[in-house]
């Protein structure tokens, strides 16, 4: 079986990467140079001797909360008790899904220890559960990351102990066969191993984890939605969400901070399939420990979080407002749920960000720009000297910029798609109606010159009264139309009136 | 926990003594299954070889609460208040109201759950039977209503898989649709003990020295399984692999089997 051989070979090479002292030493030397600390050294330097003092029960938190920092200068024995619970929870508004959870939440409880700590891990499988479960902590040095020692039937408990030799942010997940299904049902979380000297103090720490979900029903299809193995194998998720459900970090659940604060986020990706392009709209990460590693990259816009991986991002808030957490594989954000909000309160800081200063018309590039015609017409209008010729000249220029895209420069339109304005029976029937159409748009069936059109013209409210009058006057006096003119005042009157139904 | 360890041997010996004089009316219905070459998801040589399933007889339905109650009344050493701790953990028959009363939480026609492997084995001996071997169970469970081996039918597979995504309780009663062999409730009701549950982790061919932990953790299962699409079967194996012989769970029951003649089907 070739694939078996390849997987074994792969496993062996992974073992070499993680297991070889030579490789570890090289990486840690670089890190030491950069950081001037022993903290960055690898697993062979992470053993600070036997645990000291009384055993400590780890504080576990539900997302998006992170347990408090550890202020300890000696290795300790830390007892972690984590219960697996299979339960129905909403994955979106009105949509429920049967999640398999570590600690009753997706992602599972956040676990925080210090490098060198001895962790006594208790995995409990709730008696009401149907499935056996185990746990593979990526922060464990040992076969299966603990999974080989923690296979647990419903109503049972497993215990194993390990020393946290490598610092960093690590995923944990269930690894019971079929592994993909256990992960797809939400069985993952984050495990933080603090450096011995602790992490620099920040104002906020948050726990955010992305996951992809596969339901038999469509996105937002109401009711209880079962897991869809076919979609999971095809890697076509119905939902891609932060913290286990659409809306877990929006509205009342939004993350919060104040201006002039430092925020640290532990960003995990449980997968099972997708890689996340994690980005916060409107922020730049001052510091990213990508892949959860020790060395930090600075000034990062979007960081890649692999499935089964994590990162630590940090940034400083300057300007109040809502900042949007997204997977910048952007359809996932807007069509599958991967969206969260960080709400920053505080005084405006106009020196850094002004808010909207100008909202003006931009006509785009015009084929033969005549910058003077429209301006001259506007000036003439303001002085009451506007002639029909001025209007037509200005209108022609404006028409070329905006209207000709659909109605064409010769006013012929496109047969069956965009109605013609040239020799138009529709305009001839009621010339003034064209004001209304320009301002309020037109949707639905119309018959022009004997042909039926059924499409949509959006309202052109961005065109001001003078310009609209000039455009319409140009149209009325071109291509065999009946002539006449439209005044800016008429446009203003139509604009003020509600759209005709 | 290997079957060969001293604790287990002692336990088995004691078990044999306990049930030596067991005798009970054999009223349960058994179906003859022909057996034969079979593509198990756990191949005979840990690579690709078919297993050969000898002719056997399989109980049509799992053992019910009522049947198990009759058993403990006849064999009081298997009452939950008298059973030796090495044979059954504390949750043994805990859904019953009392050691010899079913009560409101255990209907007579529900499959009995919260039973240990030792207890299941003793029960089967009382029916002059034994627990089925994994390959026998798998052979019987491969059938749908009309085919001996329906495992390549994605709709049928999806239907089985759906059970695993449903909440645990309450347990249904026995009497689901009969499959090709006339056997019922192999899917969609309970997990079931098999005689060799603790051998599923051990490499079936000692020559190639497979890692005996292969099913216990991530990716390992993928190395030894022949057909990775049989998720439902995979979950059965994962479940059985997580158990010890004295364990019980709310969804774990059993049915019995006998050696057969293969003169039917």
DSSP strand content of chain B: 5-15%
How is the biggest beta sheet of chain B arranged? 3 strands, antiparallel
What is the CATH class designation of chain B? Alpha Beta
Helix % of chain B is 25-40%
Biggest interface, chains and residues, is: A-B, 38 and 39 residues
Q: How many structural domains are formed by the residues of chain B?
A: 1
User: Regions of chain A with pLDDT < 50 over 5+ consecutive residues?
Assistant: 1-39, 366-370
Q: What is CATH's topology name of chain B?
A: paralog of FGE (formylglycine-generating enzyme)
| Residue share in helix of chain A | 10-25%
Note the main sheet of chain A.
Answer: 6 strands, mixed
- What is the average of the pLDDT values of chain B? 80
CATH architecture title of chain B: Alpha-Beta Complex
User: What structural category do the secondary elements of chain A indicate?
Assistant: alpha/beta
Could you give the order of the helices and strands of chain B?
Answer: HEEEEHHHHEHHEE
Helices and strands, with pairings:
The complex is a heterodimer of chains A (about 500) and B (about 260).
Chain A: H1 2-19, H2 21-35, E1 56-57, E2 77-92, E3 95-102, E4 111-114, E5 118-125, E6 136-137, E7 156-163, E8 168-173, H3 179-184, E9 188-194, E10 204-213, E11 223-224, H4 229-234, E12 239-242, E13 255-258, E14 262-271, E15 276-281, E16 285-289, E17 297-300, E18 302-305, E19 309-316, E20 321-327, H5 331-335, E21 339-345, H6 371-382, H7 388-407, H8 425-429, H9 433-440, E22 442-448, E23 451-457, H10 465-476, H11 488-496
Helix pairs in contact in A: 6-7, 7-10, 9-11, 10-11
Chain B: H1 6-18, E1 30-33, E2 36-38, E3 51-53, E4 56-59, H2 65-74, H3 117-126, H4 134-141, H5 154-164, E5 191-192, H6 220-224, H7 231-241, E6 252-253, E7 257-259
Parallel strand pairs in B: 5-6
Antiparallel strand pairs in B: 1-4, 2-3, 4-7
